[in-house]
Write a structure and sequence with these properties.
By secondary structure, the chain is an alpha+beta fold. It is 42% helix and 15% strand. The chain has a six-stranded antiparallel β-sheet. A six-stranded antiparallel β-sheet has the order 4-5-6-7-11-12, covered by helices on one side. A five-stranded parallel β-sheet has the order 15-14-13-16-17, with helices on both faces.
């Protein structure tokens, strides 16, 4: 695991300043505290920070081919590198290291830009082709590893694993206001945008090729989308094949020359991964979890049961708000506004794990691939609800539900019921978006300052609609899964896991997102993924023989702290100070009166507004950091 960065100047007579490259690289020491490497070749400069996982002795980067005409810096792991290495040696390539990085160099010599199609792993790399005077960037299929770039046409390309690594090159800091507008609805900035106009995210499963003639971005893979009505029936053979794919993915991702553990929530996904690890290792796995002092938020008892059942060496910690040294510093790890507050326990469990291991496998991605969210069955429930006479819904059921008292428990019944009835009339695409949106278009008109609204913004729903358009011919459930993979999984879940683990110099691996697993599941009939109100049916069946029934049938809880209560109590002083009229007005973006009204509603128990409040917190912290406050 590493952080990478670099600069490519279009003028072949120009020279990279090594001091600038060094400053860029040292913004990412947390991503790679073990080693540092630079390569400056006139118009191009490559740099990396290394967290040594494979080939601890000779895996120093950049790594070159035999004559030095190709140089690569790389972040991630190639899990099938031993197979590829053997093939390449048989074709006459000479290896100087035992690292997975060197496979990329020689595979590029063989296949050119198509080399990415042979890689199984999580990766972001930059390769300099001296003969063609070309810089070539690539990102893994699901977007597990990040890669940012800034193009100044006719002048240069700057790139890095984090936004902070791009900034020392003097890239413009002007905000992308449409991106910030979208953030307020989604709690993250959607790909390919960032909070900065000049900086973009390279999309997953994409390559970027840049010469003095310009830049080209190409997609090399996508999640399969069988037409509605198609799909492989779930047979015993299919079940066995899926289980074998999962076992192979976990075993591949256990490869390392350092200790490997697992982040264990007690849910089905992480438990499945841990069970396979235990079976493959034959010895106890080190597992890590975080608990909370409110039962509806606490998964640690379930994780404890799993650890006892599987015989793991288990470590857990109960989180208190005082354990969070600095919320602004934690939020700054994302380099742009990011308001999924499950980042807090992810940071703390990563810190706990990093005391014992350098690599941890997680169950992330299971919900988006195997249909694990309640929203993946809500569209069917909504269809039945619409069969109830409209008058009965409008004048009796809806008012009754909307009058339910507010609860601050995790995903409480009143929250789900109110959300459901207010979105039940919407078509599939809008209905799915409704479950995700925090500030609606109407609410943003009241939330934002008048001067900002004069700029004019497109509807944030278009972030989702472009992906729905690609999936239009697929079964409704497959449409939802595809859109979730392109939005929430990519820009929220995987972003959170990467930044929080890397902030603690811990490498997180996500075997449920192995592309062979993703492809297999995508092609299986949708009614096998979610039937009736049962989510994740496919994974539960594949877990037979690996997990006891009580664990396979467990309900999803999620990994979020009791923030609604913390806002009212332990974090009250911090929140109220941040929501002061002075601080809100100084942002130049927010309507202070409306923000304070949201806070009052929450503090007085009128309505749970914790998500909206945290969205404002993350935005204000980012804006103040930009202003040097």
């Amino acid at each position: 695991m590493c952080g990478i960065c670099g600069i490519f100047l279009f003028d072949h007579t120009a020279q990279i300043d090594p001091a600038v490259l060094l400053r860029m690289n040292r913004t990412m020491i947390h991503r790679g505290p073990d080693d540092e490497g630079l390569c400056v070749r006139g118009q191009v400069g490559l740099a990396m920070r290394r967290l040594s996982i494979i080939d601890l002795r000779s895996g120093h980067q950049p790594i070159a081919n035999e004559d030095g005409s190709i140089q690569v810096v790389y972040n991630g792991e190639i899990y099938n590198y031993l197979e590829l290495r053997s093939e390449l040696i048989n074709r006459g390539h000479a290896f100087r290291t035992a690292s997975d990085t060197e496979v990329i160099v020689h595979l590029y010599e063989e296949m050119g830009e198509d080399c990415v199609r042979r890689l199984n792993g999580m990766f972001a790399f930059a390769l300099w082709d001296e003969r063609r005077k070309k810089i070539f960037l690539a990102r893994d299929r699901m977007g597990i590893k990040p890669l940012f770039y800034a193009l100044e046409p006719g002048r240069r390309l700057v790139f890095g694993s984090e936004i902070k690594a791009v900034m020392p090159a003097g890239v413009s800091r002007d905000p992308d206001y449409q991106a910030l507008y979208d953030y307020l609805s989604l709690l993250y900035v959607p790909t390919p945008a960032t909070a900065y106009r000049a900086i973009r995210k390279l999309p997953p499963a994409s390559t970027l090729s840049c010469t003095a003639n310009g830049l080209t971005i190409r997609a090399y893979w996508d999640i399969p989308l069988p037409p509605a009505g198609d799909g492989e029936a779930y047979t015993r053979t299919c079940e066995e094949e899926l289980r074998e794919l999962l076992q192979r993915a976990v075993q591949r991702q256990m490869i390392a020359d350092v200790p490997v553990g697992a982040l264990l929530s007690g849910g089905l996904d992480s438990t499945m991964v841990t069970a396979i690890m235990r079976a493959k290792l034959g010895t106890p796995v080190k597992t890590f979890t975080i608990g909370f002092d409110r039962p509806s938020y606490d998964e640690s008892p379930a994780a404890r049961v799993v650890a006892r059942t599987l015989g793991t060496e288990h470590f857990e910690q109960v989180v208190q708000p005082r354990m969070i040294e600095s919320i602004p510093d934690l939020l700054a790890s994302f380099d742009e506004p990011f308001a999924d507050y499950s980042a807090i326990p992810t940071h703390l469990v990563s810190r706990l794990a990093a005391q014992q291991v350098k690599v941890a496998l997680t169950g992330d991605g299971g919900d988006e691939i195997f249909a694990g969210y309640p929203t993946h069955v809500a569209y069917k429930v909504a269809a039945y609800y619409r069969m109830v006479p409209r008058a009965l819904r409008k004048y009796l059921i809806d008012p009754l539900i909307m009058s339910l008292p507010t609860s601050l428990e995790r995903i409480s019944f009143d929250y789900r019921a109110k959300r459901f009835v207010t979105g039940a009339e919407l078509p599939l695409e809008r209905g799915h978006y409704w479950w995700k949106v925090i500030f609606t278009e109407e609410e943003k008109q009241r939330l934002l300052a008048e001067d900002l609204l004069k700029m004019g913004f497109r509807d944030t729903f278009e972030v989702f609609s472009k992906h729905f358009e690609v999936a239009r011919a697929a079964h409704p459930l497959n449409q939802l899964l595809y859109v979730d993979a392109k939005t929430f999984l990519l820009d929220d879940n995987l972003t959170k896991v990467d930044r929080m683990t890397m902030a603690n110099s811990l490498e997180a691996r996500v075997p449920l997102l192995d592309h062979e697993v993703v492809e297999k599941v995508a092609l299986i009939s949708p009614d096998q993924k979610a039937r009736g109100l049962q989510t994740k049916r496919l994974l539960r069946r594949a877990a037979k023989g690996l997990l006891p029934p009580e664990i396979r049938r467990g309900k999803k809880k999620g990994f979020t702290p009791p923030l609604p209560y913390w806002i009212q109590h332990e974090l009250r002083e911090f929140i109220e100070d941040l929501f002061s009229e002075k601080r809100l007005a100084e942002t130049g973006l927010l309507n202070a009166d409306h923000c304070q009204g949201i806070l009052r509603e929450h503090m007085n128990g009128v309505r749970d507004r914790n998500r909206e409040i945290w969205a404002v917190v993350a935005l204000v912290c980012w804006l103040e950091k930009q202003a040097g406050v």
